[in-house]
Write a structure and sequence with these properties.
Radius of gyration: 18 Å
Strand order of the largest sheet: 4-3-2-6-9-10
Number of helices: 13
Number of domains: 1
Shape: globular
Distance between the termini: 23 Å
Helix content: 25-40%
């Protein structure tokens, strides 16, 4: 998937409803009250990011958003303005070429009915926004101090195929976004029941991260406004720093997620982090500077040699 191109004018016209003074609530935007079959990982064999005439040099980009509890605010902001900023800024700044974007909704495998939801990779407005707005805001989660971010890593590692890696040896990008700690383990029974895997035993989060890193540059964004991270900032940051190292991003303002993701990609691709932060200006520059302060150039193979 991934034909067509993003049209910023079309985005502006169709998003008018979500940017007026009388804004609808997030529940008016995301109207699903159950897991949509088209996003159900049990029914998905493969999500593909393939080159096309419209996007001959495609780059896969996955954004996995925590949809538990109060984290729906992040998906809400993505629908109103964030997606347009994300795609438009990638086209303007060109840290990567021909972005193919997939959105994930992430919950809790221990507690939720729909702990993972996955759109197709898309490049054009209508298919991407329509699929994103099918995501069910289950608003679940539990008291276990983590969500199932590692499910995004497992899906990316085993059920995506990308031309950027297969043809050009260039890893895609995967960002998980949430306010809780890393997933310690996904249990085989849960994976069979809720993801449709076969013959899996228990899989640790560290193992699944390493699997995803073979074909993706993997980052995690801590939403500092989220309830868990707000109450336990040091514990949350330390846990993620131990897990993901320099690819940890602190997000002080959830409405600036798109700008921080684009900036992280720029820095990972070799741009100077201070120059990138200043390029946004105003309060956004401050949020971006905090977000990318630890990121190192990372778009290389695990062995360290760039293949492009």
């Amino acid at each position: 998937m991934g034909s067509g191109r993003w049209d910023s004018r079309e985005w502006a016209a169709t998003r008018t409803l979500y940017t007026t003074a009388a804004k609808p609530t997030v529940d008016h935007i995301y109207t699903s009250r159950h897991l949509d079959a088209t996003l159900d990982p049990r029914k998905i064999t493969l999500r593909e990011s393939r080159d096309s005439a419209d996007n001959p040099d495609s780059t896969a980009l996955i954004v996995g958003l925590d949809v538990t509890g109060s984290m729906g605010r992040v998906l809400d902001a993505m629908a109103r303005t964030g997606l347009g900023t994300l795609v438009g800024s990638i086209y303007d700044r060109r840290p990567i070429t021909d972005p193919h974007i997939a959105i994930m909704g992430i919950g809790d495998f221990e507690c939720d009915d729909a702990p993972l939801q996955v759109t197709q990779f898309e490049a054009a407005n209508q298919p991407l926004t329509t699929q994103m707005e099918k995501i069910w805001l289950e608003k679940g989660g539990g008291g276990n101090c983590h969500e199932s971010y590692a499910a995004a890593w497992l899906f990316a590692a085993t059920r995506t195929a990308t031309d950027c890696f297969e043809k050009r040896g260039k890893r895609g990008y995967l960002f998980t976004v949430g306010d809780e700690e890393p997933t310690p383990k996904l249990y085989g029974a849960q994976l069979r029941q809720k993801m449709g895997t076969e013959d899996n035993g228990d899989l640790t989060g560290d193992h699944l991260l390493a699997m995803a890193q073979a074909t993706y540059n993997v980052f995690h964004v801590i939403v500092e406004e989220g309830d868990y991270a707000y109450r336990r900032p040091d514990r949350t940051r330390e846990a993620w720093a131990k897990t993901i190292g320099q690819n940890l991003i602190m997000l002080a303002d959830h409405t600036k997620l798109a700008e921080v993701i684009v900036s992280a990609i720029q820095v990972a691709e070799g741009a100077d982090r201070d120059v990138v932060a200043r390029s946004w200006g105003g309060d956004t520059a401050v949020v971006v500077a905090r977000g990318v302060q630890d990121i190192a150039v990372s778009n290389a193979t695990p062995g360290g040699m760039k293949l492009y």
